[in-house]
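FAQ

Q: What does a record look like?
A: Structure on top, sequence underneath. For example:
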């Protein structure tokens, strides 16, 4: 069994209390590794290292171009070590190797993109209206960043949070999910090889209530960036508010995937499947509400069932597996509970609904791809995030009704629209209250494209040029170029 350590100040260190948590392989259910159960002492140590890196270490005086070069080297190392990291993630998280191999190929692009941005963070000279003054702005790193991440895409979150933060000149302490901490700890070693000065990138593992809360409450952490459930996000937001900390939150969703009768129905059916069964439905952007125009509902559902029934369930390491295990035991229980909730609420079970069995299935964490129809949007199954392979089909008659139902949830993370009508595509993308709207595609993500939620799906944006702003503060500098004293020092200049 592999034993991991925290990564603090450029080195692997034992947890202060010498306690560890077990990490299971979701496919086999076997414990394959242990990760430190971090406490306040470990967080204090990591934050002190991160603060020193920003104030006294070589990172503090490094030019932005040098920061960029160091980040590019890290990107190259991720390319080299990608296959190994992908396998670790699959073992720890249960995601398909096919998906992880793709994510790891893409991961370095975040480092390259923000490496390029590091030396383009420019202030401006303001043609100020006060005579005898030079006025300009600079954008300064916000300070030590504390990052808390969910278990569903651990290494992707490392890139999404650390790359823009470090490009901005911040140091970071990451607390990954207690269920899937191994990959971030493995990744950390690459930062040493890439020449990151000690303290710039730190990983402390452990429970949210212990290590996570200590990071949120630490007075030397200036900014919290969080990915996880909306309930946890709200708790963190209020804890951070007591110290007026900057916070960005990437939370859950109940995204509508809307199919009109003029759509390419084969493409839409594939898009519906990718929206809910990819990653075993354990994605924040899951298109868990499939809104289908009533005129084509029957025909469309047939197509959908055809794909869902052919999905291969089993070993996530095998290249042709489509649906892997649920990552954590509590999540498995939650999914099975929601299948009951849907039935009690009056939804009709069309497919699945049980623990999956079959030749490739091991352990106790497999759920059949599950489809409910006759769902109305007021049912709990249509309103609450399941975070699993459970789809609710809701019929609608026209555009107006699709918009009303689509927006009638507390979340606003993403939405899909399937139509061949360009005018409708534009109208729908404007009307849907979601941070991302996909037209005739779903689950397309890029380091270049801002990502984040409206309503209870979050605050702030990751990816794209905007993300770096989350880690910067604007400073306005006024320089009086005249030697004269003010005529009246008792009034505003
Ligand atoms: P979670 O909220 O339980 O945990 C997220 C992280 O917060 C973990 O590292 C956890 O240890 C930590 N944490 C928990 N309680 C804490 C506390 N009191 N103080 C500080 N840290 C604490 O979420 P999860 O179950 O790991 O992930 C699933 C959720 O994440 C879903 O709701 C999903 O939609 C959401 N998610 C959102 C996005 C996005 O980008 N919008 C992406 C992936 C997942």
């Amino acid at each position: 069994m592999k034993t991991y350590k925290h990564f603090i100040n450029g080195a692997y260190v034992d947890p202060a209390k010498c306690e560890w948590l077990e990490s299971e392989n979701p496919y086999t259910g076997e414990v394959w590794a242990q990760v430190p159960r971090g406490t306040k002492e470990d967080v204090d140590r990591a934050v002190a290292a991160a603060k020193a890196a920003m104030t006294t270490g070589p990172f503090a005086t490094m030019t932005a171009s040098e920061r960029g070069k160091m980040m590019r080297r890290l990107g190259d190392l991720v390319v080299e070590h990608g296959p190994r990291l992908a396998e670790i993630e699959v073992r720890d998280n249960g995601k398909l190797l096919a998906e992880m191999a793709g994510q790891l190929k893409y991961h370095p692009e975040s480092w390259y993109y923000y490496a390029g941005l590091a030396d383009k963070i420019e202030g401006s000279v303001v043609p100020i209206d006060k005579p005898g003054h030079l006025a300009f702005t600079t954008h300064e790193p916000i300070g030590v960043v504390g990052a808390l991440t969910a278990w569903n895409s651990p290494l992707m979150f490392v890139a999404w949070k650390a790359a823009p933060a470090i490009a901005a000149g911040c140091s970071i302490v990451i607390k990954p999910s207690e269920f899937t901490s191994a990959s971030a700890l493995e990744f950390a070693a690459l930062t040493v090889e890439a020449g990151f000065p000690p303290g710039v990138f730190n990983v402390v593992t452990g429970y949210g209530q212990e290590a996570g809360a200590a990071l949120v409450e630490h007075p030397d952490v200036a900014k919290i960036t969080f990915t996880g459930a909306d309930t946890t996000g709200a708790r963190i937001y209020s804890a951070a508010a007591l110290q007026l900390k900057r916070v960005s939150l990437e939370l859950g969703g109940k995204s509508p995937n809307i199919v009109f009768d003029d759509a390419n129905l084969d493409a839409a059916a594939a898009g519906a499947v990718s929206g809910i069964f990819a990653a075993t439905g354990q994605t924040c952007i899951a298109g868990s509400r499939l809104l289908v125009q009533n005129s084509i509902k029957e025909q469309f559902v047939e197509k959908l069932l055809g794909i869902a029934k052919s999905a291969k369930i089993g070993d996530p390491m095998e290249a042709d597996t489509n649906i892997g295990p649920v990552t954590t035991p509590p999540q498995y229980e939650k999914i099975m509970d929601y299948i009951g909730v849907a039935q009690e609420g009056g939804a009709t079970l069309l497919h699945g609904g049980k623990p999956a069995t079959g030749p490739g299935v091991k352990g106790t964490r497999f759920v059949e791809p599950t489809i409910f129809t006759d769902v109305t949007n007021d049912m709990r199954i249509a309103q609450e995030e399941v975070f699993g392979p459970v789809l609710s089909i809701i019929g609608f008659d026209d555009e107006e009704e699709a918009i009303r139902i689509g927006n009638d949830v507390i979340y606003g993370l993403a939405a899909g629209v399937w139509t061949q009508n360009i005018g409708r595509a534009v109208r729908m993308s404007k009307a849907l209250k979601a941070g991302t709207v996909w037209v005739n595609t779903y689950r397309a993500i890029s380091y270049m494209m801002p990502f984040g939620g409206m309503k209870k799906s979050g605050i702030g944006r990751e990816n794209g040029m905007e993300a770096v702003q989350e880690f910067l503060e604007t400073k306005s500098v006024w320089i009086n170029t005249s030697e004269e004293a003010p005529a009246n020092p008792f009034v505003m200049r």
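Q: Is there anything notable about this one?
A: The radius of gyration is 24 Å.
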